[in-house]
Amino acid sequence: MEASEVLLARFLALHPKAIDLSLERIERLLEKLGHPERRLPPVIHVGGTNGKGSTIAFMRAILEAAGLMVHVYTSPHLVRFHERIRIARPGGGRFVSETDLVEAFRHCEAVNAGAPITFFEMTTAAALVLFSQHPADVLLLEVGLGGRFDTTNVVSHPAAAVVTPVSLDHADFLGNRVTLIAAEKAGIFKKGAPAVIAPQDPEPAAVLEAQAERVGARPFVGGQDFTVHEENGRLVYQDEQGLLDLPPPRLPGRHQHVNAGTAIAALRAAGFGNLPASAFEAGMLQVDWPARLQRLTRGRLVRLLPEGADLWLDGGHNPDGGRVLAEAMAELEEKNPAPLVIVCGTLGTKDSSGFLQPFKGLAKEVLAVPIRAQAAARPAEEVADIARRAGLRASSFPSLEAALASTRNTVWEHPPRVLITGSLYLAGDVLAANGTPPV
After folding, report:
1. Cα dihedral across residues 319, 323, 328, 330: positive or negative
2. Which residues form the Mur ligase C-terminal domain (predicted)?
C-alpha cells in the first residue's frame, strides 16, 4: 500500500497554486463523492485569526469530559499530517490511522480523476469522507484560511459558527485592512445558525455583527451576550443561561481566558448548554494544545540549555500573536523573574517586525534561526536584521540546535527562560527534533 506521504506529494501537483480560494472545485468533488458534507454530525465551524485551535481544544476537552464523541479537523499539522484529522472514539478521539487515511486519500484521488484541485481541498474532502463514515456527537471544524471561500465552508447548516479574535494576517489573500479580513471571516455565518463572536476590537466587531444580522444568523457577542473574567484566581463565565465558576485554564496566558470563554459560549449556543458543570471544570484542567505556550520539560533540545533553564514553545507569527505572547511572557516574569531569550524563525510572508516589536524591553536577545524545508522561510540573518530594527539585540545561527547550545556560553545571573517562536512550521521542527511530537 502506498504511504500517505506519497499521496500527499501527488496532491501538490494537481493545481499550480498552493492557495486558490474558491468553492467550485471542492463542491464538484464532494458531489462526485456523494456529498459526505451532508452526512456529518452537528458541526461547530470555527474561524478567526488567532485562537481558533485553542478554542477548539477547549471545546473538545469539555465535550469529551462529558462523555461525548468528538471529531476534530484542524490545520496545519506540526509533525505528521495525521494530526489534522482526529476521529471520535469512546473515551477520547484519536488521530486518524495510516490505513484509514490512505484509503480515504486513494478514494478521493480516484473520484477526482486528475481534475485541478488544491492540496487543502483534496485533503479536506478526504477528512469529510472519514468523518461521515464514523459516528460522533459533534464535529469541530476549523477554517483553513479566511472563511467565505475557504474549503471548509461547504457546511450549509452548522450548529454554530464561531469567529475568534480577528487581526491582520494573510493580507495578500484577505485584504490589508482588518475590516476586510473580518468580512471574509464572517463568510462562515449562516441563516438561522448562532454566530458566536469572540471579544474583538471595535472595527472587526462591527463588521462581524453587521454580517451576522445581514445573513440572518443569531449573533452571540463576547462582552455583550457573554462575559469571561478572572476573579480570585478562578475563571468566571456568564451568559443568559447562568454563571460558571471554573478553575483557571491549563493553557497559560490571559488570552486563553478569552478562548476558553468563547469555547463555552459556542457550546451553549450550539445546543450543548446542558452539559454538567463538572465537564466544564474538567475541560479547563485537561485541555491540551501543543505549541501554544507549551513548556518543554524533557527531550533532546531541553538538554542543550543551561541547567535550570526553562524552554517554552509557541507557534505565534503575526503582530497580534506577538502582542499576546509578550504579555504572557511578562506575566511569567512577574511570577518568576528570569532573563528572556527568544529563538525565532519566520516566513517571508509574515509581518515579522510587527510580531517582534512587542518584545522590545522584555527580551534580552533574539537568536534567529532558519526553518527547515520551508522555501518561504526567511534566512536567519534577515530575521536578525528585522529584530535589530525593532529595537532588539539579535544574532543569527545556522540551526536551531546551534542557537540553543549558544545559551551555554553566557554567564547568567539566573537561568534563562528560552522561548522558541515565530512560526508553526518551526514549532513542528522543534517537537520532532526534541522527540516530543503530538500524541
Report:
1. positive
2. 307-423
Q: Is the pLDDT of residue 418 over 60?
A: yes
Q: Which residues pair with 228 in a beta bridge?
A: 237
Q: Are residues 272 and 391 in the same domain?
A: no
Q: Give the orientation angle of helix 52-65 with respect to helix 255-269, to 10 degrees.
A: 60
One-letter amino acid of 54 = S
Nearest in space to 63 (alpha carbons), one of 318, 349, 361, 283: 283
Domain co-membership, 298 together with 279: no
Grid coordinates representing 284 are 479547563
Query: Rounded distance, CA 413 to CA 390, Å?
Result: 26
Full domain range(s) for residue 307: 294-434
Average pLDDT over residues 222-232: 96
Q: Specify the long-range contacts of residues 81-85, CB closer than 8 Å, at least 24 apart.
A: 81/4, 81/5, 81/8, 81/123, 82/4, 83/438, 84/123, 84/127, 85/126, 85/127, 85/130
Model pLDDT, residue 149: 94
Tell me how far apart the alpha carbons of residues 10 and 23 are, in angstroms, rounded to a whole number: 21
> What angle do helix axes 277-286 and 255-269 make, rounded to 10 degrees?
140
Q: DSSP states of 46-70 as a string?
A: EE-SSSHHHHHHHHHHHHHHTT--E
> Pick from 286, 314, 329: which residue ends a domain?
286
| Domain annotation covers residue 439 | no
Is the model's pLDDT at 168 over the cut of 70?
no
CATH number, domain containing residue 311: 3.90.190.20
| Residue at a domain's end among 242, 259, 286 | 286
CB atoms within 10 A of CB 119: 18
C-alpha cell at 202: 471595535
Per-residue pLDDT reduced to its tens digit, 355-397:
999 999 999 999 999 999 888 999 999 999 999 999 999 999 9
Upstream peptide bond of 42 is cis (omega within 30 degrees of 0): no
Mean pLDDT of all residues belonging to the chain? 95
Q: Are 228 and 194 in the same domain?
A: yes
Grid cell locating 259: 478562548
- Asked if residues 394 and 387 have their Cβ atoms less than 8 Å apart, the reply is yes
Are residues 301 and 261 located together in one domain of the fold? no
* Whether residue 133 sits in one domain with residue 39: yes
C-alpha grid cell, residue 248: 483557571
